[in-house]
Amino acid sequence: MIYVTSDLHGYPLDKFLALLSSANFGEDDFLFVLGDVIDRGTDGAALLRWMVQQPNVELILGNHEAMLLSCSFLFDSLTEENAAELGSQKLRLLSAWIGNGASPTLTGLRPILKREPDVFDGIMEYLREAPLYDIVEVGGREFILVHAGLGNFHPDKPLETYSAEEMIWARPTMDTRYFEDATVIFGHTPTQHLIGGELGGKMVQTDSWICIDTGAACGNKPMLLRLDDMQAFYE
Question: Can you give the three-state secondary structure of the chain, one letter per residue?
Answer without folding.
Answer: CEEEECCCCCCCHHHHHHHHHHCCCCCCCEEEECCCCCCCCCCHHHHHHHHHCCCCEEECCCHHHHHHHHCHHHHCCCCHHHHCCCHHHHHHHHHHHHHCCCHHHHHHHHHHHHHCHHHHHHHHHHHHHCCCEEEEEECCEEEEEECCCCCCCCCCCCHHHCCHHHHHCCCCCCCCCCCCCCEEEECCCCHHHHHCHHHCCCCEECCCEEECCCCHHHCCCCEEEECCCCEEEEC
